[in-house]
């Protein structure tokens, strides 16, 4: 493959960042949390007293800057809202040059606001949640590191810089999942998350390589601006590899096995990384690479299929989990499936995927923090079968969790209704079999979501008390409840704010392209009403099974599907059988070959030389006469050789 | 007189000297055998000088005699010193440099 690009990139179409304003300081968004992480990690125990407040302060500072940036961009007309802030020349390598820069446009700023706002709330929550942990400072260092890497990911203006942020969040996720690494199973969970992410990262790096080979550049403007000039085969390959990367990071099928085990980390980590932000990076990647998918309809179809499969997969798994965090993790997997489904549908779906991403960030993080609050009151227990009727003991947690519950169900006017319904409508748009298959999948998924989320809510907060003897559930301190309240307000109202008059859709239009109005195959009122009917049915079934009927404290055996769902629908077993065991056999056989074969050859050679030397040394008898005999024999041989040649 | 006979004599003397070196145990007798070999070669060189009609062989024989003399001095000195320390002149007894 020659180094010359197959497609000549057009001139850079994005305007440079405005001087002297908020935009030129956008690098502070990444630098401030990174500074916090550096200070806390390098400073060590000396920073233990104030470390957490430093991290909280820097995180809020990043939010303030992000808000100023948002206001600044809002003041510009819609066509000029994309600005590129050039930071430095990163890889000046002859024909390939990559510059490090930040792209400030509606999509990245929307993400910045989500990450910094929810992230800062979770920082505040963690001050109280991790109060009794001696390693709290290290926790905040890693949290700040995560925020810095995630902001770099969404602000990058090239795929290469995005990859740096991508790896950074993977690292932060590993460090935070395995935060209590004295427990071997937590450390193994962190390793599992990292390895699964790595498989995805391979996809992303191959995609970047294809981009370089095709376009000669990996910047967004170079690749996405010229995507229409590349062939469909190349674009399909790029799209599939990007999807592989997104599956790894966002825990989509088939790389979803790590998310349940990632709940080994502290609950703020689960809320921040594995609900609101890191797992949404895959969706960001797909939406940002929209022009690539528009040129490769087959890859986009695969994205939709992956999203649909995952949303049902997560929903089924969530129905059988008794661990509150694992049920929420399955729910996250499923909701991101919705986002992927929307993102794969093309321009009609991009804005809704991001809309659902933003509302999901609020209600899922709120529910995770609520779960943390419940765990805090129940001696860090996660078994929902030993909860029950906590509504009286933890009123604020109960009410805020209820806001998140209603939001994820999609009950109007909560936020989930606005975003999820739009996705279901978009799924019903199209020709032939597609709208029916994907629309039905999304609809059924909504019903199952209603069932298992209601199951979770009722098992925890209603029904009868099934508490252990030493449990004294109590409400959490204000540093924990205030962030949850703020997130609950967001879960309740954000949908209306962003959805009324399509505010978010119009805000994202410069990036996602104009939203083409196509009609779904079922009319919109029919869709809305069937969704609500399914939601009510799901919630009603959960009420019947988990509130009206006593919940057994020991999990009953359950049907085959329940048993399979408890084992994550056998994904771990499939991974082990297909990949892990063959890999183990391969490594064991290679070790065998190395020990016996290579070491045997080397050792054998040494033994041979030693044996030869042992036999040869017997010639050194010490007798002068045998030496002289040897000399005579040698001379005779030499002379006969010389004579033989001459005669 | 056919000069080849001198060469045969030289070969004979050389062989006897060689066998003496290989077979005899006393260091001085071995030395004698070495001297015999040297003298045999001297004879051969002089004979060839006579055959070729020039004096090159005789000059080389002179050198060989010189070297033989020096070697005898050194060799006998070594044998004497070994005899003084070990009270034996047998070459078989000086076999410490073995495996």
SSE inventory with pairings:
The complex is a heterodimer of chains A (647) and B (99).
Chain A (H helix, E strand, L loop, with lengths): L14 E2 L10 H17 L7 H24 L8 E11 L2 E9 L1 H24 L6 H20 L3 H19 L6 H32 L4 H6 L6 H19 L7 H4 L5 H10 L4 H8 L1 H5 L2 H24 L3 H21 L2 H31 L17 H15 L5 H13 L6 H28 L16 H22 L3 H10 L11 H25 L11 H7 L4 H46 L7 H23 L1
Chain B lengths: L3 H20 L3 H26 L3 H31 L13
Helix pairs in contact in B: 1-2, 2-3
Helix content of chain B: over 70%
Distance between the termini of chain A: 65 Å
Query: How many helices of chain B?
Result: 3
CA-based gyration radius of chain B = 17 Å
The total strand number of chain B stands at 0
The share of residues in extended strands of chain A comes to under 5%
The geometry of chain A reads as globular
Biggest sheet architecture of chain B: none
Low-confidence stretches of chain B: none
Low-confidence stretches of chain A: 1-12
Order of helices and strands of chain B: HHH
How are the strands of the biggest sheet of chain A laid out side by side? 1-2-3
Radius of gyration of chain A: 31 Å
Report the biggest beta sheet of chain A as strand number plus sense, adding barrel if it closes: 3 strands, mixed
> In percent, how helical is the residue content of chain A?
over 70%
Question: How many strand segments of chain A?
Answer: 3
Oligomeric status of the shown chains? Answer: heterodimer
Structural class of chain B: mainly alpha
What do you see in this structure?
The complex is a heterodimer of chains A (647) and B (99). With 647 residues, chain A is mainly alpha-helical. Chain A is built from 24 helices and three strands. In chain A, strands 1-2-3 form a three-stranded mixed sheet. In chain A, a hairpin with a 2-residue loop joins β2 and β3. Chain A starts with 14 loop residues before the first strand and ends with a helix. Chain B is an all-alpha fold and 99 residues long.
């Amino acid at each position: 493959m020659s180094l010359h690009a197959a497609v000549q990139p057009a001139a850079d179409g994005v305007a440079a960042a405005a001087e002297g304003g908020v935009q030129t300081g956008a690098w502070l968004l990444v630098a401030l949390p990174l500074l916090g992480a550096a200070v806390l990690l390098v400073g060590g125990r000396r920073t233990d007293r104030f470390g957490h407040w430093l991290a909280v302060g820097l995180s809020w500072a990043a939010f303030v800057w992000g808000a100023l940036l948002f206001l600044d961009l809002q003041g510009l007309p819609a066509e000029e809202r994309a600005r590129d802030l050039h930071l430095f020349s990163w890889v000046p390598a002859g024909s390939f040059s990559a510059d490090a820069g930040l792209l400030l446009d509606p999509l990245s700023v929307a993400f910045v606001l989500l990450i910094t706002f929810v992230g800062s709330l979770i920082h505040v929550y963690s001050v109280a949640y991790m109060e009794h942990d001696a390693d709290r400072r290290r926790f905040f260092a890693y949290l700040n590191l995560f925020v810095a890497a995630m902001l770099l990911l969404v602000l990058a203006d090239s795929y290469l810089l995005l990859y740096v942020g991508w790896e950074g969040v993977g690292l932060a996720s590993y460090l935070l999942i395995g935060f209590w690494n004295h427990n071997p199973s937590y450390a193994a969970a962190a390793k599992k998350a990292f390895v699964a992410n790595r498989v995805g990262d391979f996809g992303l790096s191959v995609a970047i390589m294809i981009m370089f080979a095709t376009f000669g550049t990996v910047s967004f403007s170079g690749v996405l601006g010229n995507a229409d000039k590349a062939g469909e085969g190349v674009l399909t390959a790029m799209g599939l590899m990007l999807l592989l990367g997104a599956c790894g990071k966002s825990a989509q099928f088939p790389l979803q096995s790590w998310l349940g085990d990632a709940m080994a980390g502290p609950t703020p980590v689960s809320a921040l990384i594995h609900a609101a932000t890191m797992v949404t990076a895959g969706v960001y990647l797909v939406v940002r690479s929209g022009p690539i998918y528009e040129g490769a309809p087959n890859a986009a179809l695969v994205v939709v299929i992956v999203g649909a499969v995952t949303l049902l997969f997560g929903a089924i798994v969530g129905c059988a989990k008794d661990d509150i965090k694992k049920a929420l993790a399955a729910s996250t997997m499923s909701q991101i499936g919705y986002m992927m489904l929307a993102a794969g549908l093309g321009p009609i779906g991009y804005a809704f995927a991001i809309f659902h991403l933003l509302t999901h960030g609020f209600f899922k993080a709120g529910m995770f923090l609520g779960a943390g609050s419940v765990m805090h009151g129940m001696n860090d227990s996660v078994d929902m079968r030993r909860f029950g009727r906590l509504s009286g003991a933890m009123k604020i947690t109960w009410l805020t969790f209820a806001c998140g519950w209603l939001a994820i169900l999609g009950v109007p006017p909560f936020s989930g209704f606005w975003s999820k319904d739009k996705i279901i409508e978009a799924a019903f748009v199209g020709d032939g079999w597609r709208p029916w298959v994907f629309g039905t999948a999304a609809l059924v998924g909504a019903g199952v979501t209603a069932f298992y989320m209601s199951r979770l809510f009722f098992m925890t907060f209603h029904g009868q008390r099934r508490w252990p003897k030493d449990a004294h559930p109590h409400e959490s301190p204000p540093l924990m409840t205030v962030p949850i309240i703020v997130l609950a307000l967001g879960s309740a109202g954000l949908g209306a704010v962003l959805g009324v008059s399509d505010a978010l859709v119009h805000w994202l239009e410069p990036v996602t392209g104009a939203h083409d109005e196509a009609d779904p195959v079922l009319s919109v009122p029919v869709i809305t009403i069937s969704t609500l009917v399914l939601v009510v049915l799901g919630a009603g079934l959960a009420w019947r099974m988990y509130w009206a009927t006593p919940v057994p404290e020991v999990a009953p055996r359950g049907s085959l599907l329940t048993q399979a769902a408890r084992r994550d629908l056998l994904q771990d077993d499939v991974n082990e059988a297909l990949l892990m065991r063959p890999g183990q056999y391969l490594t064991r056989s290679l070790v065998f070959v190395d020990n016996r074969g290579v070491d045997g050859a080397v050792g054998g050679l040494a033994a041979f030389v030693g044996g030869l030397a042992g036999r040869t040394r017997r010639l050194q008898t010490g007798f002068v006469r045998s030496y002289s005999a040897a000399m005579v024999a040698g001379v005779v041989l030499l002379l006969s050789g010389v004579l033989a040649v001459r005669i | 007189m056919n000069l080849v006979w001198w060469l045969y004599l030289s070969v004979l003397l050389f062989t006897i000297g060689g066998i003496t070196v290989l077979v005899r145990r006393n260091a001085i007798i071995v030395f004698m055998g070495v001297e015999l070999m040297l003298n045999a070669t001297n004879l051969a060189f002089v004979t060839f000088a006579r055959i070729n009609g020039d004096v090159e062989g005789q000059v080389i024989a002179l050198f060989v005699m010189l070297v033989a003399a020096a070697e005898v001095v050194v060799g006998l000195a070594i044998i004497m010193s070994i005899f003084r320390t070990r009270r034996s002149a047998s070459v078989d007894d000086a076999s410490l440099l073995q495996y």
